[in-house]
Amino acid sequence: MDIIFKNVEHRYQAQTPFEKRALYDIDLEIKTGSYVAVIGHTGSGKSTLLQHLNGLLQPTKGSVTIGDRTIVGGKKEKNLKPLRKKVGIVFQFPEHQLFEETVEKDICFGPINFGVSEEEAKRKAKECLSLVGLPEEVLTKSPFELSGGQMRRVAIAGVLAMEPEVLVLDEPTAGLDPRGRKEIMDMFARLHQQKQLTIVLVTHSMEDAARYADEIVIMNKGTIVKKGTPEEIFSDVTSLMELGLDVPETVLFKHLLESKIGEAIPSTCLTIEETLQGLQTLFARVKKK
Amino acid sequence: MINSMIIGKYVPGRSLIHRLDPRTKLLMMFFYVFIVFLANNVWTYTLLTLFTLSLLLLSKIPFSFIVKGFKPILWVIVFTLLLHVLMTKEGNMLFQFGWIEIYDKGVQQGFFISLRFLLLIAITTLLTLTTTPIEVTDGMEKLLAPFKRWNMPVHELALMMSISLRFIPTLMEETEKIIKAQAARGVDFSSGPFSERMKAMTSLLIPLFISAFKRAEELAIAMEVRGYRGGEGRTKWRQLTWSYLDTLFMLSLISLSILLWLLRS
Amino acid sequence: MEIAVRVQDVSFQYANQSDYALKNVSFHVRTGEWLTIVGHNGSGKSTIAKLLTGLLQAEKGRIEICGIPLNEETIWKVREQIGIVFQNPDNQFVGTTVQDDVAFGLENRGVPREEMTERINEALKKVNMESFLEHEPHRLSGGQKQRVAIASVIALRPRIIILDEATSMLDPRGKKEVLAVIEQLQKERQITVISITHDLDEVAKADRVIVMNKGMVVEEGTPEQIFAHGEKLEELGLDLPFAVKLSKRLKDAGFPLTGDHLTVEGLVNELWTLYLKM
């Protein structure tokens, strides 16, 4: 299911004295099965953008096409439920949305809202719980007895159980410790590969964007300023720095070393392994000379 | 959308009315409620209206803001007006249409009562438009201070009020976030049968309560660490200053009451 | 060297839990030092902040703050020495505006009004928030709110500041602002800093690091010494900085590096020297 943004604009509180343009000139295509990272500062419009993916917000101008549905700016679209089933959003701190007495009921909540039978929902709950790496006995517990990290996983399972075709993640690892962060990000990468799930990741972490995404979109002050593969994006370090954005440390390292020695490292340097190989080739070549 | 409801009523400014001590404004509003009932004829109502209008003018607040304050209870006013016009059977009959008989006394009564309503609302709206909520709280705390002697927890009430004011926008934002998160899980907040709507409300209210309790707990800890141990021995940073302006306005209100008393029939 | 905090053989257990949150924990912090306490969630590191300020009472052991033994009678005196910046920027903002929030702590201490105004302005200037005096919290970013929290703390002139995961809910920009302010304070005012975190930058800025696991102190040393433990640290909830990781990999691959570098700059410099020598 492809998602296409055409010349999208969004104004909050349009036609009031408080009107604020949060997005403009957005042209973007998210292809089925891709892993897109959206990067930008707080207030760059990335949260507004992601809420257009399932019709929580509707454009004030332009159009958003999600699969076979097109939402046109200015026209109020109704009956968005089918859309919301197809595009699951894991909001920032998703554990704040838990409310049922048991973990099982909470995970089933989404699927049942979308018309799945109780029995089927329970089966999905079990399956999704193991996907997020929690043991089955958690099902009967109250979500509020769990640790923060476990609650996060339950909330994610609740979205996965809806079996969306597109998974939108808003800072899914905020506030977790390094181990929890890595486990959760690896789980999403697995889902992406095994189930061909389309993933849109909104993040501050350049490291995560470089490691997991196959396309990166950079937003600034309400519009897209750059998009491309990680290799393309990180080949131009200076323009990222001009936007006040961090650069992955591997890329920063490459940039600094290259400017010192005045020679290019023969690698894109997006991971430690690539960097190591690049350095080995470089030093071997210099030795020969 | 929610933001426009309670917060953001205050219109910043430096007018005379803005600069008045909140105690003056609170006291004036309080007494105004009684004074309004002194008016009972054309003269007194005209005087009262002129006084109120001059306050509105002095505040330099666009008239449209005041009118917005009328909107929610417009139907109450219309209803009172009609009730009086149709039900009063005194004075001279103006005209008759079937069972409907309209008398001049009725029209006058209806008009006066509606005007009374409008004036009261205008004055309270004026208070909220020219005074920040925290100034209102400070004013209340000071005015109620004498009641501490009878064990009224004045300081605690004021602190509660100011903390609520502080957290209203935060909780509104939170409400919006949870609504969106649950909508993304297929909840429909605006339509559907009653039982489903109840469930939708639960999915909003439970997370909201849990988060509010957590905030309260963390806030209490933060306050304790910063040395809060009750009102005893505390100094106050926000000071209220009574100026000649305040005395002047209070005097004008007193003169108004005397005039009204003399002119009423 | 003067000792700002001394913790001796402290144990603590939460009422409804079977395991001890802290087991015979001992450590000290010198005056003017930056100590970082790391460990993954549930390692007991946040319990320490609550014990140091008397929000929780240790079951066993002794805590001394600036020479004052912590007990029921001294608790308010001890709190005058310590300020805490908590994790959630919203839940520690008491005032309706920035200046009211800084005033709150001063009011509690009964500071006269003229002095308050002076201290509020001074504290807000220190954290670069002096142009936000009248702003309400919902109009500030997370990083700005945390800087106000720091101002509220330093207006009370404590000798110790505890950062209890104070940067974990911030975006990279907010985090940088907060850490820059703390670093400057520590240098200028000789304030003792204890930061409880899993943020690598907060580890690298520390003079000394303590690693906690399952309620016990398992490692202690300078950031360099701690990072030398390599993969073992990852199990304890701490990531390794990129420069350290790459240094290790380069050494394994036969690059003659002198040690593990904590910063990218350091590593680049040594590689450059190597490159020139060839």
TrEMBL record, chain A:
One of its GO terms (cellular component) is ATP-binding cassette (ABC) transporter complex. It is a peripheral membrane protein. It is found in: Cell membrane. Keywords: ATP-binding, Cell membrane, Membrane, Nucleotide-binding, Translocase, Transport. It is an enzyme of class 7 (translocase). GO terms for molecular function: ATP binding; ATP hydrolysis activity; ATPase-coupled transmembrane transporter activity; cobalt ion transmembrane transporter activity. Its EC number is 7.-.-.-. InterPro entries: AAA+_ATPase (IPR003593), ABC_transporter-like_ATP-bd (IPR003439), ABC_transporter-like_CS (IPR017871), ABC_transpr_CbiO/EcfA_su (IPR015856), ECF_ABC_transporter_ATP-bd (IPR050095), EcfA2 (IPR030946), P-loop_NTPase (IPR027417). Residues 3-246 form the ABC transporter domain. Its main location: membrane. Coiled coil: none annotated. PROSITE patterns: ABC_TRANSPORTER_1, ABC_TRANSPORTER_2. Belongs to the ABC transporter superfamily. Energy-coupling factor EcfA family. NCBIfam families: ECF_ATPase_2, PRK13634.1. ATP-binding (A) component of a common energy-coupling factor (ECF) ABC-transporter complex. Forms a stable energy-coupling factor (ECF) transporter complex composed of 2 membrane-embedded substrate-binding proteins (S component), 2 ATP-binding proteins (A component) and 2 transmembrane proteins (T component). PANTHER family: ENERGY-COUPLING FACTOR TRANSPORTER ATP-BINDING PROTEIN ECFA2 (PTHR43553:SF27), HEAVY METAL TRANSPORTER (PTHR43553). This is Energy-coupling factor transporter ATP-binding protein EcfA2. It comes from Thermolongibacillus altinsuensis.
UniProtKB/TrEMBL annotation, chain B:
Transmembrane (T) component of an energy-coupling factor (ECF) ABC-transporter complex. Unlike classic ABC transporters this ECF transporter provides the energy necessary to transport a number of different substrates. GO terms for molecular function: transmembrane transporter activity. The chain crosses the membrane at residues 29-58, 70-87, 107-129, 242-263. It is found in: Cell membrane. Forms a stable energy-coupling factor (ECF) transporter complex composed of 2 membrane-embedded substrate-binding proteins (S component), 2 ATP-binding proteins (A component) and 2 transmembrane proteins (T component). It is a multi-pass membrane protein. GO terms for cellular component: plasma membrane. Belongs to the energy-coupling factor EcfT family. Pfam families: CbiQ. Keywords: Cell membrane, Membrane, Transmembrane, Transmembrane helix, Transport. This is Energy-coupling factor transporter transmembrane protein EcfT.
UniProtKB/TrEMBL annotation, chain C:
Its main location: membrane. The keyword Cell membrane applies. The lineage of its organism: Bacteria, Bacillati, Bacillota, Bacilli, Bacillales. Coiled coil: none annotated. GO terms for cellular component: ATP-binding cassette (ABC) transporter complex. Pfam families: ABC_tran. It comes from Thermolongibacillus altinsuensis. CDD domains: ABC_cobalt_CbiO_domain1. This is Energy-coupling factor transport system ATP-binding protein. Belongs to the ABC transporter superfamily. It is found in: Cell membrane. Residues 5-239 form the ABC transporter domain.
